[in-house]
Amino acid sequence: MCGIVGYVGPRAATPIILEGLQQLEYRGYDSAGLAVIEVNGNIAVRRDAGKLGNLRERVAEAPLKGTIGMGHTRWATHGPPTAYNAHPHRDHSGQIVVVQNGIVENFLALRNELIGQGYEFSSDTDTEVIVQLVSREFDRAEDMTEAVRRAMNLLHGPSAVVVLSTHEPDKLIVARLGNAGGVVVGHGQGEMFVASDIPAILEHTRTMSFLENREMAVIRQGGVEYFDLKGRPIPPKELHAIPWDPISAARGQYRHFMQKEIFEQPNSLTDTLRGRIDFATGQVALSDLNLDQAAVMSLDKVVIVACGTSYYSGLVGKYLIENLARLPVEVDYGSEYRYRNPILDERTLVLAITQSGETVDTLAALEEARKYNARTAAIVNAVGSQAARVSDGVIYMQAGPEIGVASTKAYTSSITDQLLLAMYLGQQRGVLDAETSLALATELALLPEKVGEALAQDEHLQELAQKYANYHNFLYLGRGIHYATAREGALKLKEISYIHAEGYPAGEMKHGPIALIDENMPTVAVALRDRLYDKMISQVEQVKARNGKVIALVNPGDEVVAAKADDLIVIPQAVEWLAPIIAVIPLQLLAYHIAVWRGSDVDQPRNLAKSVTVE
Ligand code: AGP
Questions:
Q1: Which residue CA neighbors atom 10 of ligand 1 most closely?
Q2: Would strands 240-241 and 301-306 be described as parallel, antiparallel, or unpaired?
Q3: Which of the following is catalytic: 171, 260, 549, 610?
Q4: 311 C-alpha vs ligand 1 centroid, how far in Å?
Q5: How far apart, in whole angstroms, are the C-alpha atoms of residue 157 and residue 394?
């Protein structure tokens, strides 16, 4: 959470920082601020509560002129989202400013210590503790780099910080402690950048390096030097060429990023498949997975760890891997895994699924896996992110940047990646025959087109949205592989429209939620023609018998469910293993249109952030 962007070079820093913050606003939008060293040598700071637009107004009223600076968008942890809690925070002398992403877990003790030493505080934030510590250490140290290093060593908990100071006005000092989300250093022509995430600086450079835990970077116009938090220089970091182009990170003709990302799915899925499967044979190759046949044969279990939408994708993955590779699979929340004393060893593959690659709970689960010498792999969208770097192997989603806070195309790409993984494991283990592989490859080749057909329901879904937008509660039911579809559909609705929605395994409805059913609680039932179709018909009957309204997701030509449901959403028939990818599309659109109808802020729903980098 929180977004940071910094610039040092020959150009005016303010517009670069504001544009960068715009790209990072999905990480937090409680307040925003920036600081620039102006030509007179002083630090100028502008901050405001609320979205970036408010900060832009402050900057328009009182412009800042300088070629080095940094900015921040906040997702509040300590203190309410007010202007005085907005970053950057200054030290008592006004000569040092700090922006931070993360949490200082020992901030109370440090704050009390500093107050005891005469330091005064003007915010409720833990960040202000950092800037006062840097200031105090600067009085004791030789230079700013050393002062920042000393301050960082006093902090507990994950933090990524950038420090700017009039004492040494030619540099940004960046430090990273723990899993506080990424720190990306951008290498331009005679200019340098730093950011929490790639899209913030993609317009200016695609050459980037990544700061690891307990590392610092001193960034000047001409380049960067790296140190560890013990003060020892470390060698220059590998430069990564980032393939995303800035155009694909723009909203284009669409009203919202979420809408754009929903409609991108035929293309993003084509990209996910590209280069991984031979459509003539069905053979799968996953070059970055680092799991050869001997390693595959040594596995006796897979554990999927993930959060939110990525967790629901893992629920689908369990079906895919168990059925196609015949390996047992557990799925757990990243936030729970490390607290349950898990049973795993070197014969376990721990698979993290994470769009951002920076979700702190998922990273912690990976860390737990490493303690037990388990093999690790990550399905990740953000190239070069932490999860990709710390895992033994990676399968990239190749879905392109996902900006909307509500995840859409990453869900379908991560399921596709898991299908490829399941096929790969099945093929290496000799349990997936050539005929089934080829049949799946043929289905996969048709997938983007079928997703396109599901998207063609858009107008109908707008009408449904209008009809159902004023209900306060929804139930989503699915069985088997579509239990995950129900969970994901419900999550989409609640996170952007703020309507309470529950995704439930349809067979469990009679064990409790059925008590909720009446004419005021619509049920979205995933009733596709698969192994459990007949069971789903009974569930629909049970809802109707209690005056519930049913919106049913069906395949073409379905007359049985059509006769019972109040409304139908028709999607193309597909083999069971691919059906969740198609079935979720209308649920994404339904949630989207209901949210638009209700006037919600679709791309930046309240209280949420795209990358959850706090525990
Ligand atoms: C999805 O719409 C959410 N906003 C959220 O649940 C998200 O999927 C979760 O935070 C995990 O993120 P990750 O995939 O980047 O790890």
A1: 308
A2: unpaired
A3: 610
A4: 8
A5: 27
3-state secondary structure (DSSP) of residue 234: strand
At 516-541, the pLDDT tens digits run 989 999 999 999 999 999 999 999 99
Low-confidence ranges of the chain (pLDDT < 70): 1, 180-181, 244-249, 614-615
Give the span between the Cα atoms of 82 and 68, in whole angstroms: 25
User: Residue of the nearest CA to atom 6 in ligand 1?
Assistant: 308
Q: Which residues line ligand 1 (CB under 6 A)?
A: 307-310, 354-356, 359, 362, 405-407, 495, 608, 611-612
Instruction: Please indicate, yes or no, whether the overall pTM of this predicted structure exceeds 0.85.
Output: no
Nearest CA residue ID for atom 16, ligand 1: 354
Q: Which pLDDT score is estimated for 248?
A: 61
Mean pLDDT of the chain: 93
On the 0-12 / 13-18 / 19+ scale of CB atoms within 10 A, 310 is buried
Specify the amino acid at residue 598.
R
If phi > 0 it is left, if psi is from -120 to 50 it is alpha, else beta; for residue 138 that is alpha
CA 443 to the chain's CA centroid = 28
Nearest to 277 by CA among 393, 442, 441: 441
Is 610 an active-site residue? yes
Give CA angle at 571 (568, 572), nearest 5°: 145
**Ligand 1 atom 2: the closest Cα is on which residue?**
406
The rounded distance, in Å, linking the Cα atoms of 500 and 479 is 21
Nearest one of 11, 12, 56, 16 to 33, comparing CA atoms: 56
Q: Measure Cα distances from 387 to 115, 277, 356, 371, 535 in Å.
A: 38, 24, 8, 16, 39
The pair of three-digit structure tokens given for residue 394, joined into one six-digit string: 């990676």
pLDDT in tens, 83-128: 999 999 999 899 999 999 988 989 899 999 999 999 999 999 989 9
Q: What's the CA-to-centroid distance between 348 and ligand 1, angstroms?
A: 24
Inter-CA distances, 135 with 43, 91, 130, 491, Å: 15, 6, 9, 44
Which residue of the set 2, 260, 409, 492 is catalytic? 2
pLDDT of 2 reads 85
Dihedral-angle region of residue 526 (phi above 0 means left; psi in -120 to 50 means alpha; beta otherwise)? beta
Identify whether 307 is a catalytic site residue.
Answer: no
pLDDT at 247: 57
